[in-house]
Design goal:
The chain contains seven helices and ten strands. The two termini are 16 Å apart. It is an alpha+beta fold and 242 residues long. The longest helix has 22 residues, at 67-88. A hairpin with a 2-residue loop joins strand 6 and strand 7 (131-134). Helix 1 (47-59) runs antiparallel to helix 2 and helix 6 (203-210) runs antiparallel to helix 7. The strands form two sheets. It has a five-stranded antiparallel beta sheet with strand order 1-10-9-6-7. It has a five-stranded antiparallel beta sheet with strand order 2-3-4-5-8, covered by helices on one side. It has a single domain, classed as Phosphatase 2c, domain 1. Helix content is 30%, strand content 26%.
């Protein structure tokens, strides 16, 4: 069973300083133990529709069952959304190119267990015992080049297509999701965020924010850090604390 009030969270999104449209979306349901961030594929006319559809479908999932059942339901929901985006919603008046896609990162928390499910480069971080851990691994060309030892981190960062996604909801007929399960420790703080947030903040800035007393203060610190700079992309974050 889920215990209401067990988790505290805060969520925020901002278009940033360059883009007129916000293609990010988030889900914040602490009573139900589910949170998510989705980032519509940048530059594509259907990006905001895709991210909103991902979040809306996740919000409608039933909350009964244990975390294993709920994890399966999340994956089934995202695969169904992927089929809908890649097939049914291909061409509309607003999206004549027929391209609609979104990253997604979902966090489920129940009792002493956590499950992170994702596709794309929106991330899940964990702050534990004054250490920052990146739980998710980007599905991007940059990460693929590094993993396959085709480039150093510096070379991969400099690649002109470094940010190109290798997985996203709606990007192909079959969606492959990645899952990480872990035990929760007292004092754990989680951060879900789009690339518009983390690309302008280093690990120290993320950790400094997540060490603050409350999710809302952490969120204020994160957004102040990005919005004081160039803020080239939409930025979204959800901070969750046990």
């Amino acid at each position: 069973m889920l215990h209401s009030g067990r988790w505290r969270s805060a969520a925020r999104t901002d278009p940033g300083k360059v883009r007129s449209r916000n293609e990010d979306a988030y889900l914040e349901c602490p009573e139900q133990g589910i949170w998510a961030v989705a980032d519509g594929m940048g530059g594509h006319l259907g990006g905001d529709m895709a991210s909103q559809l991902v979040v809306a479908n996740l919000a409608e999932l039933p909350i009964h069952g244990d975390i294993d059942e709920r994890s399966r339901a999340v994956r089934q929901c995202l695969r169904w959304t992927n089929r809908r985006l890649s097939q049914e919603l291909t061409v509309t008046a607003e999206n004549p190119l027929g391209i609609m896609g979104s990253t997604v990162v979902v966090l489920l928390l129940e009792g002493k267990r956590a499950a992170c499910i994702w596709a794309g480069d929106s991330r899940c971080y964990l702050w534990r015992d004054r250490q920052l851990y990146q739980l998710s691994k980007d599905h991007s060309l940059r990460q693929q080049l590094i993993d396959e030892h085709q480039a150093s981190i510096e070379e991969a960062d400099a690649h002109p297509a470094a940010k190109a996604l290798t997985r996203a909801v709606g990007a192909s007929h079959e969606l492959t999701l990645e899952i990480l399960e872990l035990d929760i420790h007292c004092g754990d703080t989680f951060l879900l965020c789009s690339d518009g947030l983390y690309q302008d903040l280093g690990g120290k800035a993320l950790g400094d924010a997540m060490s603050l007393a409350s999710p809302s203060r952490a969120l204020e610190h994160l957004f102040a850090g990005v919005l004081s700079g160039r803020a080239r992309d939409n930025l979204t974050a959800v901070v969750i604390r046990k």
